[in-house]
Specification:
The chain is mostly helical and 141 residues long. It is 56% helix and 0% strand. It is elongated.
């Protein structure tokens, strides 16, 4: 979890509470029509309080909503597979770019245009680096 750094407006707090409540309902109801029924009832509860102008009452309603959400949270909430806590989070390792330099020449021959363009870009990068930092001197071993 991360701590909020800046100020969070009342509108954003309401939106966040609403989204968290929807996710909680998704965890409890697996059949779509049952979930939609409860989501509509919950939306009606939010809509009944949307015209409250007194911020003290509005803050109290947010606190009550967060407390109710905490009390009704699911014991095993659903998570998206690639989100933190999901079953596939962090499983796909993206290899670094330099791995391609170690391909066998026969593998490189299957993609001649790509590797020609890659070599050209590497030369351009070396020129840019030497222009910015100067040529490197070879150190004696």
């Amino acid at each position: 979890m991360s701590l909020p750094i800046g100020l969070v407006s009342h509108t954003n707090k309401v939106k966040s509470l609403y989204k968290q409540a929807l996710r909680c309902l998704e965890a409890w109801y697996d059949r779509r029509e049952v979930y939609r029924y409860h989501a509509v009832l919950m939306r009606n509860r939010f809509d009944l309080n949307k015209d409250i102008k007194d911020m003290r009452i509005a803050k109290e309603l947010i606190a009550q909503g967060e407390e109710e959400l905490f009390q009704k949270q699911h014991w095993l909430p659903r998570k998206f597979p690639h989100s933190p806590g999901g079953v596939a989070y962090g499983r796909e390792v993206i290899p670094p770019d330099w791995i391609i330099d170690h391909w066998h020449p026969l593998e490189k021959a299957q993609y001649p245009e790509y590797f020609a363009r890659r070599e050209q870009r590497k030369r351009e990068y070396v020129k840019l680096w030497e222009k910015k930092f100067g040529k490197s001197e070879a150190l004696p071993h």
